[in-house]
Write a structure and sequence with these properties.
GO molecular function: cytochrome-c peroxidase activity; electron transfer activity; heme binding; metal ion binding
Number of domains: 2
Organism: Gemmata obscuriglobus
Largest sheet: 3 strands, antiparallel
Radius of gyration: 23 Å
Strand order of the largest sheet: 12-9-13
InterPro entries: Cyt_c-like_dom (IPR009056), Cyt_c-like_dom_sf (IPR036909), Cytochrome_c_Peroxidase/MauG (IPR051395)
Keywords: Heme, Iron, Metal-binding, Signal
Protein name: Cytochrome c domain-containing protein
Number of strands: 13
Shape: globular
Helix content: 25-40%
Structural class: alpha+beta
Order of helices and strands: HHHHEEHEEHHEEHHHEHHHEHEEEEHEH
Length: about 450
């Protein structure tokens, strides 16, 4: 019997006659769409990435170039087939050819302890350097239309939305000149974990949008070459992607946990933290609570950085005309709140740094406002050697002053909490804990 006949027999035995192949679930379709589809055209030719090193002030192309690219831009190996590209970059159409573009995982794909995760915020990304270097490699001006990132590991995500929507009519057809909608590029936003969305009724740091909205996930598609019809075409795929996000689970803490210590911490957490952040376990609760700025006391720049003009434009556009049956009515897609939404804390051990602007590198600092570093840098590596399992978060080096004569690339590695949008003040709820109590709460947080 030939090998082909054996294979055919095996299939006939495994699959009963007349049995239909099971259709993939929406979440499975969503994962495939997210990891395989180029939803926007390419930004660069295929030669840009191989030539990006010419902007690095090095004498020759690094020997281990793939590793050097990851370290330079804070990218991570793709845990899925991706044509040899890191997470966040992908092959995409470019006019009549194929080039390299970006996808959601540029910001929403991170790694910890050498393992990459879809949905973990990328806390090492230098998106400013990536776009500048790739432009230089194409022989173009590296000057960007606004600042994409002030501090490595953060992005001006709000600025992207405001800037790109300014080029669109309400039906998402292109318009020129760009409509000014109050662009701010000093908000210094951390990237939240996608797995938190399953619990949230509203999303974004201010709780401004319904978490069930599919169209809000599609704002990054406003590439200049994306047509209005493309948004309608891809909306079903993003509905599946939304189902995939609702099924994501956080990674488990990989080190031993002191069970007795964590139990004490759980009791303290329920007394002092659960009102805002919810409870955990099989019968979890999440209050979806927005804390007023006057109470939370964290940096107000992100809250003030999205203008009413933008909110009106968004609500009157295609993005705001989604029939989702949520708490909002058609045409009123953004709501205005008086503060920041307290997030769920699932997988919080893996999501350092903390606060909406990534200004606090460890959970110990979140629970002790007086112990937070004011001026510091870190390695921007995500291996075990750079993780602090006691304070829970990234190890940092505190600085007495900003070093002189740094390149822009090196300057973005320094977090200066005196700069606009980067204050580490506020969230003082753990200040009254004793050192032992704080350690107990942190031990409990490792279990989430």
């Amino acid at each position: 019997m030939t090998r082909f006949a054996v294979a055919l027999l095996a299939v006939s035995v495994a699959t009963p006659a007349g049995a239909a192949e099971k259709a993939p679930a929406p979440a499975e379709r969503g994962y495939q769409a997210l990891t395989r589809t180029a939803f926007i055209p390419a930004f660069w030719t295929r030669l840009a990435l191989p030539n990006a090193w010419k902007s690095w002030d090095v004498g020759e192309r690094p020997a281990d170039y793939d590793r050097a690219v990851l370290e330079r831009y804070g990218l991570h190996a793709a845990p899925y087939p991706n044509d040899g590209l890191p997470m966040g970059l992908r092959k995409a159409p470019l006019l009549l050819n194929t080039g390299v573009g970006i996808d959601c995982m540029l910001c929403h794909g991170g790694s910890i302890f050498g393992k990459s995760y879809v949905g973990l915020g990328n806390s090492t990304l230098d998106i400013q350097a990536l776009f500048e270097d790739m432009a230089r490699a194409e022989g173009l001006t590296p000057k960007l239309p606004f600042t994409f990132s002030n501090v490595r590991g953060t992005t001006e995500a709000g600025g992207f939305g405001v800037y790109l929507l300014g080029f669109r009519n309400p039906d998402l057809s292109l318009r020129t000149p760009r409509k000014e909608l109050g662009l701010h590029d000093d908000l210094c936003e951390d990237v939240p974990a996608w797995w938190l969305m399953k619990k949230k009724r509203t999303i974004y740091y201010t709780g401004a949008t319904d978490a069930r909205s599919v169209r809000t996930l599609m704002q990054f598609m406003m590439h200049p070459l994306t047509t209005a019809k493309d948004f309608d075409k891809h909306e079903p795929a993003f509905r599946d992607i939304s189902a995939y996000l609702a099924n994501l689970e956080p990674p488990k803490y990989p080190f031993p946990i002191d069970a007795a210590k964590a139990a004490k911490g759980e009791s303290l957490f329920k007394q002092h933290c659960a009102t805002c952040h919810g409870t955990y376990g099989a019968k979890w609760t999440y209050p979806n609570k927005v804390i007023p700025l006057a109470e939370i006391g964290t940096d107000p720049a992100r809250h003030r950085g999205i203008s009413a003009d933008y909110g009106k434009e968004y609500s009157e556009s295609w993005f705001g005309k989604e029939e989702s049956g949520g708490w909002f009515v058609n045409g009123k897609r953004l709501r205005w709140t008086d503060g920041y939404q307290a997030p769920p804390l699932d997988g919080v051990w893996a999501t350092a740094p903390y606060l909406h602007n990534a200004s606090v590198p460890t959970l110990d600092g979140v629970l002790n406002s007086k112990g937070r570093p004011k001026l510091y840098t870190r390695s921007y590596k995500t291996d075990e050697a750079n993780y602090d399992p006691v304070r829970v978060g990234w190890k940092v080096t505190e600085l007495g002053a900003v070093p002189g004569k740094l390149s822009a690339h090196e300057s973005r590695k320094i977090y200066d909490t005196s700069k606009p949008g980067r204050s580490n003040a506020g969230h003082t709820y753990g200040d009254d804990f004793s050192a032992d109590e704080r350690a107990q709460v942190i031990e409990y947080l490792k279990t989430l």
